[in-house]
Design brief:
The protein has four helices and three strands, in the order H-E-H-H-E-E-H. It is mainly alpha-helical and about 120 residues long.
Length: about 120
């Protein structure tokens, strides 16, 4: 629990952060999320397709993202691609995680930043 509140603290892992960040710029299909996540993380997060879709399903179940009809006009062969978008809850979680990381970085810089710069 977060001190002084009744809300549980949610901390997300690095791949989840980059998936949510990818979707923050607009709806995307899974492969676009995969490529964007790799680019946003500067190659540090490389997800397999099965790992990505497991994460997307978990994020759907947690209510951080939702399916979108955007981009499903069936212009290509085969089945329409599943498109995902960040919802308001996911945006709040992403913002809270970014704020948590900013506090950690500020503490680091205050304590050790000068000598480790």
């Amino acid at each position: 629990m977060t001190p002084g509140t009744n809300k549980p603290e949610i901390i997300i892992n690095e791949p989840t952060f980059f998936i949510l960040l990818s979707l923050a710029s607009g709806p995307k299909h899974g492969y676009a999320v995969l490529k964007d996540t790799e680019e946003l993380s500067q190659g540090k997060v490389n997800l397999s397709t099965s790992t990505l879709y497991t994460a997307l399903n978990r994020l759907l179940n947690q209510g951080f993202i939702e399916r979108s009809d955007a981009g499903q006009n069936g212009s290509g062969p085969g089945l329409p691609r599943k498109v995902y978008r960040l919802n308001e809850r996911g945006r709040r979680i992403l913002n809270a995680e970014a704020m948590r990381m900013q506090v950690m970085l500020a503490s680091y810089q205050q304590r050790l930043g000068e000598e480790h710069a």
